[in-house]
């Protein structure tokens, strides 16, 4: 569900014509999740999931986020992008057990931006899952596409300072076992955000075609055409591609340790005659 799930908020118009988008985000830090067979991890969540919701606005919209901290620890939300200092998620610490704070700012700049808890130690709060994606669309929009979000993450399950598992959207090997269905000759747009901690770099390699890459998504013209990009921590971008042949194509980290430990998946490319075909579980 997370892959193509976008939250546009509760939408209304202000007297001056500005679009207001209102969101509610709740933090919790007591959930136990089976992230791999037999491996349970204490995830800290925004709105009950890791990653948190993908919230979306158009440049110039007024964004209002009602933040509720139902956890046992102090938390905040820090948004990458433009906002006043008092909305930065650094100093306005929100207390546990129902503490509240309202973030309000004008959406900008255009692009794909992470948000995350910024309470110290930040590595602990991000490492347990308190992060999500904020997309700011250009006023003129982008070309129509099949859009999806992939948050790259890692988990230090034995707390030794090294990640044991890696994934796109939290569950290792999920898209290998559940290939992502896409259509041949249709534009695919993936918003990729690297939230892996403990490792300085990550990357995204695509088989069978090349993609246009827009670093941070702030420019409407792609920076280059490639089949692999490398990300530092919290680095992100937009990739766009089409497949001209049907079949199964792998995408994965080209850091082999990451792919061997879960950061790998498949696109299943169909033509129009395959629109209602069953998706099989490829691999184990």
Automatic annotation (TrEMBL):
One of its GO terms (molecular function) is copper ion binding. Its EC number is 1.7.2.1. It is an enzyme of class 1 (oxidoreductase). Keywords: Copper, Metal-binding, Oxidoreductase, Repeat. It catalyses: nitric oxide + Fe(III)-[cytochrome c] + H2O = Fe(II)-[cytochrome c] + nitrite + 2 H(+). Its cofactor is Cu(2+); Cu(+). Cu cation binds at residues 75, 80, 116-117, 125. InterPro entries: Cu-oxidase-like_N (IPR011707), Cu-oxidase_C (IPR011706), Cu-oxidase_fam (IPR045087), Cupredoxin (IPR008972), NO2-reductase_Cu (IPR001287). Residues 42-140, 163-271 form the Plastocyanin-like domain. Homotrimer. This is Copper-containing nitrite reductase. The lineage of its organism: Archaea, Nitrososphaerota, Marine Group I.
């Amino acid at each position: 569900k997370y892959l193509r799930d976008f939250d546009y908020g509760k939408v209304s118009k202000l007297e001056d014509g500005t679009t207001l988008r209102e969101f509610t985000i709740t933090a919790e830090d007591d959930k136990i999740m089976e992230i791999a067979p037999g491996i349970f991890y204490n995830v800290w969540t925004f709105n009950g999931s890791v990653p948190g919701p993908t919230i979306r606005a158009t440049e110039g919209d007024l964004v209002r986020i009602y933040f509720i901290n139902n956890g046992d620890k102090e938390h905040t939300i820090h948004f990458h992008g433009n906002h006043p200092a008092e909305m930065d998620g650094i100093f306005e610490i929100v207390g546990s057990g129902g503490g509240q704070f309202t973030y309000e700012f004008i959406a900008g700049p255009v692009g794909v931006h992470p948000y995350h808890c910024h309470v110290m130690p930040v590595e602990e709060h991000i490492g347990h899952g308190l992060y999500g994606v904020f997309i700011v669309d250009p006023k003129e929009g982008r070309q129509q596409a099949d859009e999806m979000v992939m948050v790259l993450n890692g988990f230090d399950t034995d707390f030794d300072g090294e990640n044991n598992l890696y994934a796109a959207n939290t569950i290792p090997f999920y898209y290998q076992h559940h290939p992502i269905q896409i259509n041949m000759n249709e534009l695919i747009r993936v918003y990729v955000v690297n939230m892996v901690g403990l490792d300085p770099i990550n990357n995204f390699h695509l088989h069978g075609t090349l993609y246009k890459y827009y670093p941070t998504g702030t420019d409407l013209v792609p920076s280059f055409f490639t089949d692999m990009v490398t990300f530092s921590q919290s680095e992100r971008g937009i990739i766009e591609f089409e497949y001209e042949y049907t079949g199964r194509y792998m995408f994965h980290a080209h850091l082999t340790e990451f792919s061997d430990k879960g950061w790998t998946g498949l696109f299943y490319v169909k033509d129009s005659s395959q629109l209602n075909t069953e998706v099989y579980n490829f691999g184990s």
